[in-house]
Amino acid sequence: RTRGTDLFQLDMEYVLYVKAEDQNGRVDDRRYQSTPEERLSIVGGKRAPQFYMPSYEAEIPENQKKDSDIISVKAKSFADREIRYTLKAQGQGAGTFNIGPTSGIVKL
């Protein structure tokens, strides 16, 4: 239940701790059987896409052929929108790799 006019602030994380108790399964006179508390994180408002893994690594053999798949990256949209991938490379080696804009597959 909420109070006030705003249901939640945008871009704010709300943390709840949830525990389930079995009211019919008493352990003793005062305690019920229960699960451990679980942390539930809720983010209010718009949230940027997030990669499924914190980092991605790939080793490329010296004789790897051009246009070979190197690695696949994947991100989740919290707004259920299509994810578009781009690579930003600078300096020497820029243009060596490309990424499928919708697949997330990095190629040599």
Automatic annotation (TrEMBL):
Q: What Gene3D superfamilies is this protein classified in? A: Cadherins
What molecular functions are annotated in GO for this chain?
calcium ion binding
Q: Name one GO cellular component term.
A: membrane
Q: Which spans of this chain does the record mark as coiled coil? A: none
Protein name (database record): Neural-cadherin
Q: Which organism is it from?
A: Anoplophora glabripennis (Asian longhorn beetle)
